[in-house]
Structures are given as C-alpha cells and as structure tokens.
Amino acid sequence: MIPEIEKASVKEIKAFQEEKLRGLLGYVADNSPYYRRVFKRYKIQASDINTLEDLTKIPVTTKEQLQRHNDDFLCVPKSQIIDFVTTSGTLGEPVTLGQTDKDLDRLAHNEAISLACSGVGENDILQMTTTMDRRFMAGLAYFLGVRKLGAGIIRVGAGIPELQWDTILKFQPTYLIVVPSFLLKLIQYAENHGIDINTSGVKGAICIGESLRNQDFSLNVLAEKIKSKWNIELFSTYASTEMSTAFAECSEQKGGHHHPELIIAEILDEDNQPVEAGTEGELTITTLGVEAMPLLRFKTGDIVVAHTSPCACGRNTMRLGPVVGRKKQMIKYKGTTLYPPAMDNLLNDFEEVDGYVFEIYHNEIGTDEILIKIASSSANHKLMQAIKDHFRSKLRVSPNIELCPNEEIQKLRMSKLGRKPISVIDKRA
Strands (DSSP E) along 68-216, which ranges? Predict the structure, then answer.
C-alpha cells in the first residue's frame, strides 16, 4: 500500500506539491481570517506563490500566533466542526484544533498509509495502549487509520500492565501502539508473573512519544534494552496535532517517511531560511488537504535532519531522522548546547533508575541550570557519582542530581491533561 506519488521521482513529487500548494493558497486567501490579514500586511498575492521556493515569501506561523489567534485560523463555520482536539501544551498553553468530516477522512488516510509503511496489514490486530479520550488526536488517528486499513484494533488505553497482558494473552494482537518506555514495564510485569513474552504473538510495536534511534539510525539505549528481552520489531512514528500527519518508519528503519500528498516540509535555520542538505534545522510544515484549520509554514519547534537519498523500500520521499530536540528546550549549560533527548538516553543506561525528570531553570546570574530528579530503590553515593561521571564523559557536563520518592517523580511526569508522560519541566521564563 505505497501511494503512487511516494514512488514518483523527486521532480514529479515537487510538481505535484506545487499544484496542491497553489490550491491551498487560494483556499486560505478566501477563507482564513488570519492568513487574509497576513497576506494584506505583507502585500502577498496567492498568484505570486507558484513554486516551493516561493514559500519563503510568506512569513512563518509560530505556536504563539496559533495560540493568540486560535479561532482566526478556522476556515469553516464552527457548525461544520465534527471533532475538537487540543495539543498537549508541553511548551505552552494548549491549542484547540477543529476537524471537519473531510479532515477526519484525511486523518484516517494518513494513519492507514503510515501503518502500512511500517508493515501493518489487514490481517493484523493492534492493541492501543495510549488514550483515545482527553481530546487526544493520536489515539483517534490510530483508531481511524486501523479501521481504514481493515485491520483489527483493541482500545485498552494507557497504563495497567496487568490489563495489557490479560488483553495480549486473550486476543493475540500482532502489534502494540505504545510509548517505548512502557514496553519495559510490560517486560518487567511478564518476568514477575512467568509470562513468556516471545511466544505472546506480538511481532512489532508502533512507538510514539520517545525516540528509539540515534542520529545514525542505530538503536539507542532504550531500544536496545527492549530488544535484549523482547524479540519484536520497533517502528518509530513522529507526528504532531497541528500537522495532522505522521512520519512513519518503513521496513528499512532509516527515518520517518514524508507523505507529500498531505504535507509540505521545510527545514529552516534561525533566519527562517532553508538549511543545507543534511543539516539540523527546525521542521516547518504547510498542511495539504486540511479543511478546517490549514497552516502555512508552521514552525513545529522540533529540530531535525532530513534525509533525501532513495529508500530501499521503493519510496523516493524525504525521510526525517530522530528529533534532536525541541527548540524551546535547548539548554546552554556551561558552554555546551544540550537537548533533553540526549540526557534521556544516558539515564537509560542505569538499570537502578526507576524514574526521573529534568528541571531546567535560570540561576541567579541568568544562565541555564539543570536539576535531575531521580527515583531509585537502590540509590547510593556510588550510583549518583556514576551518573555524574557518565554525563561528564558523554556530554562534557555534570548536572545537579536530587534523589526523590518514586511517587513524586511519577506525579511530576504526568502532564496537565494526563495524556502522555513528560520528562522535562522548564521553569525558565
């Protein structure tokens, strides 16, 4: 189930996207109060934008603008909105996005081709261990996509390893939709209760929310821990509520594939200009086919590297590498630039660490400080020193560490909406 456009040449994909872009610009010029103001202010005519290169004539859209002018992005009357979702609000106040019936069809198509990209077929059964409620788009997207694909789905929801294993043993799902670190909890529960995980019938996991790979696509520490116990395939998925589109790994597992019929992707530098090939930059997207709240040049806040070589799976689309970090969570610590995912990977080296959060704050002279709050049932001075030494060796810095009860850590890790755990608490103004 590879869409024909994803097998087309790079030149054909570009021409296809430019045609879609011209239609989108006419649509927002007619229907979006926000973009009508932008076009008027910057004297932009929709007819002036004919190529992907012309996109730089349009100013970027930021999360702050989407928050501040939320309703002005709507292109349809609210009476046509079928479903309301909100972003997780990790980096600020949540944003509300409305979806029409057509948008829900697009969401289903996106997830169906994304799951198919990762090898899921109509004969598979997927167990969803993430929430579908609390205005969470991802859970809804997975359900709609699995339904469109013709596969089966079991909506178990988040947490409760006992219930997850009861469901696995009863219904024999072939794939789990899961946050990767939760797989470790499932493994631990199975080991404690005599369950042979490698005869459970689960052959793969569609993973969201946490990275599985290093920048060279090798497995990171978290993924290696999972694979050392459970012989299943791990597929990374990257998506966001605002773009209503996923970048999913194929069988080659060399980055998440771009769906050119659904989104235009740019990788931009600090001056909002395209970066050189193979260089880190901020993923900036323009949605295609969205009816209620289309976005032009929306800056996601995620720092990524794009890969453009043809993939052995037969797709010629651009692929995104693992997210390097969130732009707003970049830390300048004692002369070193850090992103939380790099610190996540280091802490996963320590079996003794039961849970953790990173607190980032400004000290009395206004520079960045890091406090790692750790829960461990076997903590001692030797462990704390080993963690500091490991950070110093790998990242050239030694952050402050504080031991806390596991209950406190778990409470801190739960987001306001309780949809997915967080590992970073940014207290900087």
Answer: 83-86, 96-99, 125-128, 152-155, 175-178, 204-207
